Amino acid sequence: MTKKFDGEKQDIESVCTYCGVGCDITAQVENNKIVKIYAQKDGVVSQGKLCIKGKYGYDFVDSKNRIREPRIKKSFLEKNPTLAQKYAGKLSEFSAEYMTCDVDTATSIAAEKLQEVKETFGGDSFCAIGGARTSCESAYSFQKFCRETMESPHVDNCARVCHSPSLKGMRTTIGEGAATNPYNDIYETEFMVVIGSNTMEAHPIIANRIIDMARTHNNLAVIDVRETKLAKLAKHNCIIPYETNLLVLNMMAHVIINEELYDESFIANRTKGFDEFKEKILNDPYANPKFMEKIEGYEYLAKMIPNIAREYAVKKSMIFWGLGITEHLDGSYAVMAITHLALMTGNVGKTGAGLMPLRGQNNVQGACDMGCLPYFAPDYQQPKVEGLMTPQLVDAMLDGKIKALLNMGEDITHIHPNLNKIDKAIEQLEFLMVQELFMTDIAQRADIVIGVRSAYEKTGVYVNAMRRLHLSQPLVKSDLPDDWEVLTEMAKKLGDGENFDFKTSEDVWNEVRKVAPRRFSGADYYRLERHRKRGMQWPIYHEDTPVLHLLDFRTEDGLGKYVYKQYQLRGMVQSILEKTFFDDSLNGFYLTTGRTLAHYNNAAQTKQTESLYSKHSEDVVLASVEDEGKFGDKIILKSEYGESEALTVKYTDKVKPKTLFCTFHHAKSRINAVFGDESDELILTARFKSVKVDILPVGDEIACG
């Protein structure tokens, strides 16, 4: 569609800017302003429905809080008098804290500072964190700027916070770390397992399909540490103790093997190492579901887990998971345990049977595909040099080895763990630059902030949770630069102009197709425009690939493999076994965190819409009704790493005693200060889904304990 950014009313198709579902949207635009967003009835992803964020959360585009002009901290200019003097004529007063200028001046100052850092401390004193909230073109440019222009291997994105264990676990076992099937295969499946995902809140348009099938066929199992909304429709509502995902998944494997429910032909033809895996499972005392009979309050799992395993094994089944699987000490191993179930039963590589990691950010799949990871170049190739992951970069900042950070759309001082430590690390930097839409928590700490276009103001490719490429187009016109344009300008000023010879986003994408041919060689803009409504799923050559692993897995020999990890007794289960868990004389509650439907991540965009902000204007703690009276309506959560601000408590029967749930959308809550450096042992994704906290009194309220 040819767009006119004038007074003419028109409908423009694009893609939603929120979660990884990647809904097709249509915006009604008048006078260069979005007046309505809706989904087409024939929308392949949306199916004519949007969640409240996608439908109403577009006020951020015109918000008075948008960063419309670059901001440079006066304190930075005072520390860099040569730059201040050189560009004094182009700087003007913005506020008591900031000066402002045009983008050309801001990128010139940034480039000169980066050059100074590079010459003084070396290229690897620079790092780049971000990229999953912008287009593939910008994510690709981001990692290229880091690796090639700045000659640093240290690039990372928010997959470190969420689904890196999915990538690690799936690549280890089946060679590819992405969803195996399209969403509509839900209608072809016979049984569904949702584990560690609050799907109705976090991925509601996928949940719609699951709900339709569950209501019609009663074929849903939900496994979680609390009762989510989706559990109301579950045939098996399986509430498990904290940190027992791997335990439960290994138990399912034990049942399938012990009762010989596995697919012998699939195992023989398409996998290797099963006999060794079988022996380890059968000789693991923790893998036998009878172990659950010893866990007070969870004895029913000794029968429920086998029932779920049996139904999964004998039917054409799909497994869906979210951050409730990955954000643990054993997140990668839990993902491997999920793929083991699919490999044993043949529930992968076919329509209606597969593995579905539910991605969080709108382009987290695309950012990883583009190489915004320290250990993967574009197309998941080996980089020349492996860099540090974000937690390691924070340590390097504290050690004085990392001197400069370029941050693109990743609010690390709000969303990442161990906030007190990160705060100290950021203070050690020589230079911090942020590209953002709003003055997020990290942007407020930056030396230079450059406002950029939102997803609704630019052209670009986004890859959703089912590997679907959608070429977005601008809904409204903006004079702000795109992220890749800012990076291109800085690269040229750093003497890397030939390497960044990009005039349009299509120029960037055409380079992606050459550099990442295993997935994108056939995905030119022309084809993506023609298939905008349907989208195309990578790998894309002459045609796209809706279902992965039809004939072979994407491993070197084409075979899936088993990598067994035994559950390690700890935390809540150990406490129950030792008879200390329910002792009210002992402080300590197990906390998990998650999203609510009205907001997205750090709420930077959603809180600009009053109807969304008013639904959830503060982070709230959910506690068990059985714990009501032990503390008041306001509490502070404290761990050995830090403490939250005062939080409102609501009591519910959906949460088990001595456990808590809290959202994390508002930076003022500082909920992530209670999480430390404990993380997945293979890939350093933080342990967000389980931490033991004490409850402190607020005002005249009593403390728990």
UniProtKB/TrEMBL annotation:
Pfam families found in the cross-reference section: Molybdop_Fe4S4, Molybdopterin, Molydop_binding
Keyword match Metal-binding: yes
InterPro entries (alphabetical): Asp_de-COase-like_dom_sf (IPR009010), MoPterin_dinucl-bd_dom (IPR006657), Mopterin_OxRdtase (IPR006656), Mopterin_OxRdtase_4Fe-4S_dom (IPR006963), MopterinOxRdtase_cofactor_BS (IPR027467), Prok_molybdopt-oxidoreductase (IPR050123)
PROSITE patterns: 4FE4S_MOW_BIS_MGD, MOLYBDOPTERIN_PROK_1
Domain 4Fe-4S Mo/W bis-MGD-type stretches: 9-65
Top-rank taxon, per record: Bacteria
Keyword field: 4Fe-4S, Iron, Iron-sulfur, Metal-binding, Oxidoreductase
PANTHER family: FORMATE DEHYDROGENASE H (PTHR43105:SF14), RESPIRATORY NITRATE REDUCTASE (PTHR43105)
The protein's name in its UniProt record: Molybdopterin-dependent oxidoreductase
